[in-house]
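Task: fold both queries, return C-alpha cells.
Query 1:
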Amino acid sequence: MRYVDGFVIPVPQERLAEYRRMARLGSKVWKEHGALAYLEAVADDVKPGRHTSFPQAVKLKPGEVVVFAYIVYRSRAHRDRVNARAMADPRLAGMNAGNVPFDGKRMFWGGFKAFVDE
C-alpha cells in the first residue's frame, strides 16, 4: 500500500507567492527523487469549527491562510529513501525554520499508511 506524508501550514497571505515558489521547488525536488505525487492546496472552503478545524489546528491569525499539502510514495521505506535524498539535495540547503515564509511552530505533519487506495 502507498504511503502519504501530510502537512497543514499557516501561511501569511502576503507571503503566499513566496511560499508557492518554495512549494514548486519542493515539488520538483521530491518528484525527481522518486515521489509519486506532490500537491499543495490553499484553503478555499475552510471555516473555524465548534471544537476543531484546520484554522484552529494551526492557530490561524488574521491575514493568514491554511495550506494543506501531501506527498505520495510507494511505501514507508520508499518515503524514507526519497526524503533522505530530498533533504540532502543542495537546492534545499538554505531552507530552515528561520527563512521560510510561514511559522513552522504552528505547522503540523505526519506519515500515513494508505488503507483504502482505489
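Query 1 returned. Query 2:
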Amino acid sequence: MPLMRIDMFRGRSKAEIKNILDISYKVATEELHLLPRDRYQIVTQHDPEEMIIEDVGLGFDRTDQVLVFSLTSSPRDEGDKERFYARLVKELAAGAGVAPSDVLINITSNTKADWSFGDGEAQFMNGKLG
C-alpha cells in the first residue's frame, strides 16, 4: 500500500496516463519505502463540470492538466511525506509536463488492520505480510 487514486480531467492519452502512473509509483516506492509489487493505482477521468479544484487562497493558477492524488496509507513519517510531495511535483514536471501548481496531494492514514488484499483475509493481521 498505499492505495493511490488519481483524479484528472478527461482527455489525456493512454501513454500520458501510464507515464503519470509510472512516475508516481516510482516516487512513492522510493520516498514512502514501498515493498516490491506494492502497486495499487486507480485513475478516474472527469468531465470539466465534475471537478472544481481551487487553491485555498494560495494564488495557484490551475489548468486543465490538474491532478489530484488521494492516497490511503498506513501512517508515514512526516519527513517522508514532505519528500514525496516535493519529489512528485518535480518528477511530474520533468517527465510529464505537469506544472507543480497543478498537483494536489492528500494522504489519509489508516492501520494495517484496515486492509485485506484478497481472499477475505487480513494479511497483516494473520502474519502473511509484515
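Both queries returned. Flag for query 2: The longest helix spans residues 78-96.
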